Amino acid sequence: MVLIVFLLAYLIRRQLDTANRLSGETLWRHWFHRADIVKAGHESGIGAGLMLVACALVAGLGIFALDAIGWQIAGYPLEILILVLLMGAPGWNTVLRAYSMSWRRGDMQAAWRNVEDRLPAEERGAALSPDALHLSVARVFMVTVFQRFFLVAFWYVVGGIGLAVLARGMVALAEQWPRAAARPRFQRYAEILAWIPVRLLSVTFGIAGDLAGWLRESPDGAGRLHKNVADTLMISANGSLTGYALDPNRFSQMHPEEWADFGGRSLSAIRDLLNRSMLVWICALALLVIFGIV
Question: CB of 88 within 8 A of CB of 22?
Answer without folding.
Answer: yes
